[in-house]
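README: folding subset

This subset contains proteins for which both the sequence and a predicted structure token string are available. Records are stored as plain text. Below is the entry for Thiamine-monophosphate kinase (318 residues), shown exactly as it appears on disk.
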Amino acid sequence: MREFDLIDHIRARTGLPRGDVDLGIGDDAALLRVPEGQSLAVCVDTMVAGVHFPAGTAPRELGWKSLAVNLSDLAAMGATPAFATLALTLPVADARWIGDFVDGWLALAQQHDVALVGGDTTRGPLSITVAAHGYVPHGQAMRRDGARVGDIVAVSGTLGDGAAGLDVVENRVSGESASWLCVRLNRPTPRVALGGALRGIATACIDVSDGLTADLGHLCKASGVGACIAMNDLPLSAALTDYIDLPTARGWQLSGGDDYELCFTVAPAHWPEAQARAAAAGVPVCAIGVIEAEPGVRVIRADGQCIPAMAKGWDHFA
Ligand code: ADP
Ligand code: MG
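--- output ---
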């Protein structure tokens, strides 16, 4: 397969029709419209084989996940996804690999009506860079810097499943819980509807991609506050409880990566409304702690002792 056959294949399948795309794949740049009154929210993420995913990960999973991690960033801003670009670096141009990658991509892109409008294709060690673009009404994006002392800290879904999924892959574990955890690792659900629903009520928001304490630490730092969270309140999936002992699970919940849940803060008076909106969006949320004036993230352990969290989230250069 040649470079242009490859691009043609991608183009033929991914250019979902949208009224705001004047020109998609095929020219030197795409031409897109931003509706009146909306800001364009833009993010980009690179996934490198052997760093962000095990080398043997199926192309179908990579297609889904490379888009999902970006839609998760847009969700954390409260933005509605619209377009994406895809820069692919491939060791070989394999038609089957591309077909499977696009299958996985489309399964998610169609759910959110995201049009692929351009990209770049090069040869080299496998690496996938996706940029996603979305809309958010002017001045209404959820940022990291709005948390206030006394706010409730909440998270969506369950935590620790991504780290468990990686453990499953690395140790080639099989079974029902193990395969569910693998799906959580490879096919994360970006919380797009929840992000939109929390706009105007959450004071700050971040997606949990590098580990809860690290990401909550970023939110706190940006807001000039700290947080105290209770280990016993971190939402655990049945599969995670089934898969591993509780102390290991709690460790993964605090510092494992790849969960792609939303962590947000909300004034206590607005918490019932936030819960109602989350329920309407079909996503469980739960309160895990409170924002405090003292900088840093603290964790109340199962034995009641409050200790500073070791914010050892993923750092590429550590
Ligand atoms: P240029 O040399 O002008 O950058 P390319 O030959 O790289 O153009 O790409 C031709 C067209 O195909 C462009 O519109 C580009 O956005 C698109 N494209 C290239 N690679 C990809 C890809 N992996 N996914 C989606 N679109 C792509
Ligand atoms: Mg190019």
